[in-house]
Amino acid sequence: MVLESSNFLELVKKRFSVRDFLETPVEREKINLCLESARLAPSACNSQPWQFIIVDDLKLKNKLCDEIFSGIYKINSFARKAPVLVVVISEKGKFLARVGGYIRDTKYYLIDIGIAVEHFILQATELGLGTCWIGWFDEKKAKKVLSIPQNKKIDVVIPVGYPAKEQHTKVRKTLEEIVFFNREELK
Known about the structure:
Blueprint: H1 7-14, H2 28-39, E1 50-55, H3 58-68, E2 84-90, H4 95-104, H5 108-126, E3 130-131, H6 139-146, E4 153-161, H7 175-178
Antiparallel strand pairs: 1-2, 2-4, 3-4
């Protein structure tokens, strides 16, 4: 049973992956609010293992898209339509987080990046912006175009802009399919 809907739940329901954007420029103030939301995300051992490159120069954005969304990555070439690309750079995190991750066989810095990016994306949704989480792109070429050192890792690219279309219906499993209280048997 779900209690009365909250503002947050309504925001989550509203968010969807946008693949068609208007040409309308995105205000820097809105991007900065999204970045502030990402900055405040929690992380293992307070590592904050993220950096963000905002690409809103049309010439640079187009060059980046040409390079990172070609060949086997062409499926994501829709990102070219977005007025802004956010390139998320991750670091391995603090020593304790890395040791704990090694023991648990968990890459905590990736979880941290996921939380920060979701904060960014939800803030963007609240501001009327559309986004799409992209992990399939040519990282090597992205590093070259943006002069990112080889020891850095790019895990996510987020196109950001105003959606050209309304949200489509989300298809999700029911709570009964995914939730088990206490010692109920998994189905």
